[in-house]
Amino acid sequence: MVIHVFPQSTRHLSISKEDKLGEAQTLLQGMQLTKGEGGSPAQGDQTVRRNITFDKAILPLTSPTDDLASLPDLTEDILLKEMHKRYKRQQIYTYIGEILVAINPFKELQIYSIPASMLYKNVVARNSLPPHIYGTADAIYHSLVMEKLPQCCVISGESGAGKTESAKYMVNQFLRLADCEEGGLNLKIEQANPLLEAFGNAQTTMNNNSSRFAKYLELIFSREGRVLGAGISHYLLEKSRVVYQNPGERNFHIFYLMFAGLSPDEYNLYGLQGPQYHRYLNRSGFDLRTMMTQTAKDKMDKFRQSLQTVGFNKDDEDNLLTCLSAVLHIGDIQFITSANNDVAQIINMEVLNKVSEMIQVPSEELDSALTSEITVTRGEAIRRQRDVYHAGDCRDALAKALYARLFGWVVNGINHLLQPLEDSPEDTLEVGVLDIFGFEDFSRNSFEQLCINLANEQLQNFFNKHVFQQEQEAYQTEGVTMELVRFVDNKPTVDLFLQVRNLLVHHIKVGL
Ligand SMILES: Nc1ncnc2c1ncn2[C@@H]1O[C@H](COP(=O)(O)OP(=O)(O)O)[C@@H](O)[C@H]1O
Ligand SMILES: [Mg+2]
Question: Could you state, in order of their start, the residue ranges of all structural domains in the chain?
Fold first, then answer.
């Protein structure tokens, strides 16, 4: 997984070697190196096996491969070999120039303690400490405060690489750097997380808690670096998961938590029986009864507490559970082809009536919206009956839209809690952390997955341009001799999708 940092402005950074040094010096002015009793760790030790304790912060030693950009030969093979060696020594972080590469350790490391976090506060010389996400956060924070430029941090990598965890460490470190008091904004963000994860995350074959949406968290700072508030934007929620899951995958967490945590009275109120009775949940091949665990029940209790803390009241909670139950009941509406013509007809009207009551739409209107469509030709409205296939599509589209609106409503509520206080200054600076969900290639890929893969390709393209092309152009402009770096340019692929978007979308529709 890689973490790129970009100033948000369009300012073109001069990147000749001399300028880089000058820039670094400006950045360092007025800052102090915070160094623990362990002192400056040994440089040049390539066979590091031990960890070092700086003021009770347990970290790996620094080593010459901390920044792979400084190696004399840079090939993919060398980069991978070096990172593999580092990983075996539990050095999960590596710098490659401005970029931080992180490899998921899949076990708890002791490198995220408060003493470690404090050690990476106001770091003067990056190479005095081992690479760390806290170090990258510190560099971003200081660019913000010293250069007064908004910053953006992009976290990319395949599913399960550790992007969301990294985003959490990054944000926590920003809040500590800004001396945000414990129990302030960080507590609010922590309280909002169970809601976001319950609605936006699901178990996949790659990750038990995979985010199925892209999250852009923007922290808002005063020009002096004091944190004022935050805001979350969400993109590309994988709505298709509500109605279909690939083998070995599950629907969004909230559905299972609901069944584990609702009381018998609530089951009655929302017309629910058990997860195995609902089509949107029972096709993934899991034994759903084994999911009704105490842990799931505890998570549902935590979810309800988070709702309250974020500011949703009991009525909101009831509305939310009603809508979630409605989504499941919508999925159970079934159609058959009517006897006298080839059009769809609902066979279980009791389910339609239940849904109509829950979403407060008269059942005749809901029936006709699902089984027919109106087209307007030359000012004249013509109603056409759908066949079973298209009525089923329409039913699923309704469930997906309802779920997506619900998710948006929850995020709005969270934003209300996180927003800056009214007396905040007008000229603020922002640090954005983009946690996009990863590129994936399944045997059956949804339209959303195509959009996500395209977003990832675009990020890669932006990264190529920023890191290779612009840098090489600047070297050439300034007459600095250098060997051209060869990289795979994905621009033709990105252009294929973006320039002929309408054509492709048309093809996709036809293909579906
Ligand atoms: N820095 C880390 N230290 C320990 N475990 C981690 C770390 N990063 C990720 N993990 C583990 O990997 C899992 C997947 O990480 P996650 O951030 O959800 O992946 P992604 O967002 O890239 O899909 C987490 O649930 C956690 O168990
Ligand atoms: Mg994630």
Answer: 2-10+18-240+423-460
